[in-house]
Design brief:
The structure is a single chain. The protein has 628 residues and is α+β, with helices and mostly antiparallel strands. It is 39% helix and 12% strand. It is globular. The two termini are 46 Å apart.
Length: 628
Amino acid sequence: MKHNIFSRKAMVIAGVVCLLLPLNSCDKDLDVTPYSYFTTANFFSDVNEANMATLGVYEAMSSMDSYGWNISLIFDVDTDIEQMSGIGADDWRTIAHYQGISQTNTFYLAWSKLYEGIDRANVVIERIPQMELYTNGTETQKQQLNRFLGEAKFLRGFYYSELVRLWGDVPFKTKSSQSGDKLSGALVDRQEIYNQIIKDMQEAALLLPDQMPTDERINKWGAKSMLARVALFAGGYSLSADGVIKRPANYKDYYKIAQKEINDVMAQNPYKLNPSYAKVFKNQCQHVLEPTENIFQVAFYNPSGNIGNASWIGNFNGPTTASGVYPSNIARCLVPKPFYNSYNTADQRRDFSIATYQINNLGNKIPLLTTNQDERWTVSKWNREFMTNATAERVYTHINWVIMRYSDLLLMRAEVENELNEGPNAIAYEAINQVRKRAFGADIQGSRIAIDLKTKGTGYTNAANVVIQITGGGGTDAAAAVVNLASGGVNTIAMLRSGDGYTSVPTVTITSTDGKGSGATATARLLPKPTNAEINLPSGLDKVAFFKALQQERAWELSFEGMRRADLIRWGILADKLAETSAAVKQIRSTYFYPSITNFVTGKHELYPFPQNETDVNKSITRQNPKY
């Protein structure tokens, strides 16, 4: 189980020492009430207090304003693989559908949280080297303090990388706020900020422990892995102040930085893929830390079940679920059907990641496979079926938000090698094929299954009340449901998940929850495991073909994990993918819900607007992002 870095005691202490105004205000030029005001006199007298201050830097992530909801779940949509449900004035809808404006409060909340984390990091970076123990303490004390310093440098770099990713040029400071400071930071060119981010993360990696973590705190290899991602974004496309989408002329220099950091990590071999793709997310739902798979993650924990330090992961972005056997959820994150159709049918990621069903109050899956129900398909990686469903998690959950998994690093390696070598080399192929091998269950003993209807039975009156149960066979996760009835008999059944690990044919039983109907039967059969030729990418691909395959592989592997919209922007293809997806859904149905194509403006929506609450106060921000 995870060791929560935010224990009840830590949350109380952090809540006291982290009282501060972020670098913004509401309606007038207020003096800053800085983090350092609370910490200078009372903290940094010993290792424990330095640790508490460092936890305060992490705590900025563990909020609904940042990775509990806004940055993780709202800011990643709408794209070619996911969109927000419905039309309305809610911030989470307007932002997703490219209708957000500078007055949209959610932009301000996320902006504020990131700067809050930066200011806290600046305090730690300044104060730890001034501690007596930093110079004259025991070796253990010095080691601990250096670790905290490394964590603060890494987190400052990470928070700035997120600000730049979302807003482009932003105010930039590396000194903590002092009492009486004015909120007047001017915009700084993003490449200058990236240079400092890279420096911070490189210095952090030298200070951080190389042992695998037992909690959610960053280590040496996590910092290097995240630095590789930052370098790819620094060398990627972004919308500049002049309204042009472009990448730096020296972009390959950033790719070389990414290559070096990735090679350093791979040489130490600290990470490995869980053989089961499904198990990765079941572990997340069950709060099982898996540091060899999850490189960097945000901790969430609130024993009271309230909003503080908790999230909406698995509630906002899970399958539609009625209250009963499981707690209900609101299921706002929809999956366009063309993305579902893009998977190979043997790819186990498809049916685990996408719910083509909803869950009723009895805990049974009700298929969404007729008429226009495909417009209600949702994300399903974080599913009530797999959660603890403890009292404290019935609304807000304690599921950590994983910012980087090992498969992401492997796919970055493939991308970097393809770019720097003007085509894929053996390293690139090996990296992407590792990910694909896991996706097709190659290292899991046993197989997927299919189910065939044998007899239709009689007397059934409602397909939703007819349940298909699958037991035995040694596997997990297979699920099937009745789609419709005809003349009182079961007419059509569908596989909702083909499962994995079945070493023998399981037993299939068809029952009725309302006692009406009987006699329907079905049998299962094992499906053949895919061959290496089916799993691996074709050899001999050129640079362009391999890159397109890599772009699609990242969608399949990392779907709904917070990076798709960002990837499309750094590749310079967000507008193209929205147009492509709009055309695909309209081929399915002219009325298919996909509002973003109407709202999206190229050269505008690749960045968010500077929050008006910020620009009203900070008069040094003398422009808005393009077209806002």
